[in-house]
Design goal:
This is Sugar ABC transporter substrate-binding protein. The protein is α/β, with parallel strands linked by helices and 373 residues long. It has eleven helices and twelve strands. The strands form three sheets. The protein has a six-stranded parallel beta sheet, with helices on both faces. A four-stranded parallel beta sheet has the order 7-6-8-9, sandwiched between helices. A two-stranded antiparallel ribbon has the order 10-12. The structure holds beta-D-galactopyranose.
């Protein structure tokens, strides 16, 4: 049923977009009234990298929706290199698109490039990650990033029975890439839940990472969201601080790419599922991690159905082009240092072994076959 609903929603989305695009082309004559300086039907889409699984899905789905709705698109991936993304965005701006959709690598690095977009009246939507330190971003669409971390923290509390007074447990916290604006929200959401237990001694951090407050998140950040860097960091921590039979009980991993590296480290250090395998969090429901959840090597992931984010952004693109009111549902949470950016926040969802089927397969995100179910 859920899959049918999703298909119906997607078709309805395309039909409504197509209808309006048709009308916007008729509006091309007086493009200034259609909310953007450009006369073309081009939409620029800038994604951070192909090496992190989700962005491939994000880019493909959004491009597919916009093409089906009659827009022309240019979709670029920047291999997690900030300079490359700036050049890509500058090239897109030279093609004078109606709207730029940007999932930034470093949200603080795009201000100068977006100056030119503003001069050409090109509207800019920040996709998933906020663009900072510039007035030249018009809207932001993402999942509730603070809630992602909060769900991870609450899961750990429940799983360990911390709220029932259990403990102490050995915790190893990790945070996302230091240049990613989302990473601090993920960490704050989790740390606001877990820190009271660290303060009470129910959670101990043998690696001694200094985390007096969530502002210290960069002390445990893993740049580029790299699985390899997370794996070697975990190796170091186990080698240095887990001797004499001491065991890791829980790992706060902000997303799946880090969790994968951490799981490979634990495996290489002899940890066994069902014996001494720790509680491990994640995010994104990447394929390998979803399989690890089914195999008991990861406890949960916070799923963000990237299709719904693409749907929402495609709708916002169309509203901009049509010159109608752009749908937002949060006009207070995201101050980018220059202004509060009107945002649309989507709800993240916890997925565990028990509901991989109902949430990820029945909704059509994965086939049962792909997960070996
Ligand atoms: C974050 C994003 C997460 C995760 C991470 C690494 O900004 O919100 O879903 O994918 O980047 O790509």
């Amino acid at each position: 049923m859920a899959k049918k609903l999703r298909v119906f929603a997607a078709v309805a989305m395309v039909v409504s977009l197509a209808a309006t695009t048709a009308c916007s082309s008729s509006r091309d004559e007086d493009s200034s009234s259609s909310g953007s300086g450009s006369s073309s039907n081009l939409i620029g889409i800038a994604m951070p990298t192909k090496s992190l699984e989700r962005w491939n899905n994000d880019g493909a789905h959004l491009e597919d929706l916009l093409k089906k709705a009659g827009y022309t698109t240019t979709l670029q991936y920047a291999d997690n290199k900030v300079d490359q993304q700036i050049t890509q965005i500058q090239n897109m701006i030279n093609q004078n698109p109606k709207v730029l959709v940007v999932a930034s690598i470093d949200g603080t690095a795009l201000g100068p490039a977006l100056e030119k977009a503003a001069q050409q009246k090109i509207k800019v939507i920040a996709y998933d990650r906020l663009i900072n330190s510039t007035a030249n971003v018009d809207y932001y669409a993402t999942f509730d990033n603070y809630q992602v971390g909060k769900l991870q923290g609450e899961y750990v509390v429940k799983q360990l029975g911390l709220d029932a007074g259990k403990g102490p447990f050995n915790l190893e916290p990790f945070a996302g890439s230091s240049d990613d604006n989302n990473a601090k929200f993920f960490f704050s959401g989790a740390w606001d839940v877990l820190k009271p237990y660290v303060d009470s001694g129910k959670l101990v951090i043998p690696s001694g990472k200094k985390l007096a407050s969530d502002a210290d998140w960069k002390n445990v950040s893993i740049d580029g969201w790299s699985s390899q860097k997370a794996q070697s960091e975990m190796d170091n921590r186990i080698n240095s601080f887990y001797t004499g039979g001491k065991k890791v009980d829980v790992v706060l991993s902000p997303n799946d790419s880090l969790a994968l590296g951490i799981e490979q480290s634990l495996e290489s250090k002899g940890y066994k599922v069902g014996a001494d395998w720790p509680v491990i969090t994640g995010q994104d429901a990447d394929l390998a991690n979803t399989k690890n959840i089914l195999a008991g090597k990861q406890s949960m992931t916070v799923w963000k159905d990237t299709r719904t984010l693409g749907d929402q952004v495609a709708k916002m693109v169309d509203q901009i082009v049509k010159g109608t009111t752009v749908e937002t549902n949060d006009t207070s949470s995201y101050n980018n240092g220059v202004k509060v950016v009107p945002s649309y926040l989507l709800a993240p969802v916890v997925v565990t072994k028990d509901d991989v089927k109902t949430k990820l397969v029945d909704s059509g995100f994965y086939t049962a076959d792909k997960l070996g179910l």
